[in-house]
């Protein structure tokens, strides 16, 4: 028993010795490495600080370079800044003239003008000048740019449909009696025809319906126009078809104005675009000589001949405005005079869209 107890004690002692020795071996490296870790530990914060300082320096350089670039661009912009005028020149509208050099009137009897011509702008929106410093104005095909530098394109406008009328060696009869002969009218766009007969009044004739006009079927028939009023028959005849070869028997719309009378003892033919008296009574063109083996007819009596068309004015001139003599009145001399220059105006960029203009010079008569 005692031997077994002694053996157990020895075994326990051996085990304790082995445990103590193992702990001593494992603890020695830990104690030896502790000073080394302590030596390396302070080096890590220094590296991170240097890296942070380098990043901040690089960012500062980039910010400085950016500021310098912005300042350089601003200096270049100031050196290239536009210092010229911003307003464009607008020429005065020119009057629209007829064949005789008189200013045309609209259906309301107001004088008609062409649109005013404006100075062009370049692609930067600035007024455009040529090499000699003269303003460059818009044309029908070149309008330049707007104030924002956007290209202005000419609008493609379809020409309006017109109704040409030809009265060649025309004759007007009233109840079969010749009232006017040897008329020659080339009407580019037929709106209204005026037929005056003493004692009857003035008949306004149109191909299209209008207020106060009554339809007469088949009035236009190839080379004749026949209308009736109060039992009287008025007929206009021409050597050529009045409204073209495609037009045969077509209706006309007729209004009788009994309140307006011309100071003429013979019938008169006129044409125009207004429904208001005194209407318009243009002169007739000269008829072309007859071709072929014809015997020259005797001259037409003066009372049956139409008033002749005046010669057109030279370029840049027009007939001096005056009350036009009506058929049967003594003709008033209307010499050709230079077209007034009107008022030159300036349009500011902000006013260009609204159409506001400022007068800067007075007209020259």
Task: Walk me through what this model shows.
This protein is an alpha+beta fold. It has 2 domains: 82-153 and 337-365, no CATH class; 165-287 and 300-334, no CATH class. The protein has 3 helices and 14 strands. The protein has helices at 2-40, 43-79, 349-354; strands at 88-90, 165-174, 177-187, 192-197, 201-206, 214-221, 224-229, 232-237, 249-257, 268-272, 317-319, 336-338, 345-347, 358-359. The strands form 3 sheets. Strands 3-2-8-7-6-9-5-4-10 form a 9-stranded antiparallel sheet, with no helix packed on it. It has a 3-stranded antiparallel sheet with strand order 1-13-14. Strands 11-12 form a two-stranded antiparallel ribbon.
How are the SSEs placed, and which strands pair?
Blueprint: H1 2-40, H2 43-79, E1 88-90, E2 165-174, E3 177-187, E4 192-197, E5 201-206, E6 214-221, E7 224-229, E8 232-237, E9 249-257, E10 268-272, E11 317-319, E12 336-338, E13 345-347, H3 349-354, E14 358-359
Features:
14 strands; 22% helix; single chain; nine-stranded antiparallel sheet; 365 residues; alpha+beta; 22% strand; 3 helices
Explain briefly what this protein structure is.
This protein is of the alpha+beta class. It folds into two domains: about 80-155 and about 335-365, no CATH class; about 165-285 and about 300-335, no CATH class. It is built from three helices and 14 strands.
The structure class reads: alpha+beta
Helix content: 10-25%
- How are the strands of the largest sheet arranged? 3-2-8-7-6-9-5-4-10
User: Main β-sheet, in a few words?
Assistant: 9 strands, antiparallel
Give me the Rg, rounded: 50 Å
Taking pLDDT < 50 over at least 5 consecutive residues as the criterion, the unreliable ranges are 28-40, 351-365
Number of strands: 14
Q: Tell me, what's the shape?
A: elongated
SSE order, one letter for each helix or strand: HHEEEEEEEEEEEEEHE
Strand content: 15-25%
Tally of domains: 2
Termini separation: 156 Å
- Secondary structure tally, helices: 3
Average pLDDT confidence is 82
